[in-house]
Amino acid sequence: MQRLPYLDWDAVADFGRRAVHPGPDLTPAEVADVVASLHAAAGRAPGHVAEVTGLSRPAEATTLVVDRATWIAGMAGSARTMLTRLGAPQTPSGAVARLGGQLLGAQLGPQALSDLGVQLEGDAGALGRLMAALDAPDPGFAIVTP
After folding, report:
1. How high is the pLDDT of residue 143?
2. 137 with 62: CB under 8 angstroms?
3. DSSP SS3 for 101
4. First and final C-alpha spacing in the chain
5. What does each of the 146 residues of the chain score in pLDDT, given as a tens digit?
6. Separation in Å, CA 131 to CA 62, 64, 83, 125, 134
7. Torsions phi, psi of 88, nearest 5?
8. At what angle do helices 9-19 and 95-108 cross, to 10 degrees?
9. Which pLDDT score is estimated for 122?
10. 73: exposed, middle or buried (C-beta count within 10 Å: 0-12, 13-18, 19+)?
């Protein structure tokens, strides 16, 4: 089996944050309104789902509203955790491996994470790993803001 290469996850997150469009230009008050609206909608959603599907209402969950850059940092941390468990090295074996890891990070961040950060805009999903990577209180739902 081929060994996984060293990957500089800080470079992945950094280049991903740089490549993603920051979203609409909003004032702090407008951002607060959007975040409050998303929290309110997330709080109402389980009741609507239970009513429409006939399923029982799930337990209350923490809702984390994040911007695209924070989502990218959390996903890079999540991917690092998963690949470490598969045997990916956490430190480079030398200068060439370090440079290679930075170059891989410069490719992966913009190509994968920044593209996903835009595609998941406004989406909600059970992202316990993201919340853990961001030190959020309990796994629940994360919503990526526009």
Report:
1. 67
2. yes
3. helix
4. 41
5. 568 888 898 998 888 888 887 778 889 999 899 889 988 888 888 888 888 888 887 777 777 788 888 888 888 887 888 888 888 888 888 999 899 989 888 887 776 665 555 555 444 443 555 555 556 555 456 666 66
6. 9, 7, 18, 11, 5
7. -65, 135
8. 30
9. 47
10. buried
Single pTM value for the model = 0.66
| Three-state SS annotation for 37-93 | HHHHHHHHHHHHHHHHHCCCCCCCCCEEEECHHHHHHHHHHHHHHHHHHCCCCCCCC
Report the alpha-carbon distance of residue 66 to residue 128 in Å, rounded: 13
What does the pLDDT read at residue 19? 83
Q: Name the one residue in this structure whose structure tokens are 């890079």.
A: 76
Query: In terms of C-beta distances under 8 Å and separation of at least 24 residues, what long-range contacts does 53-58 make, across chains too?
Result: none
Separation CA 122–CA 65 (nearest Å): 10
Domain positions in the chain: 9-52+61-144
Amino acid at 55: L
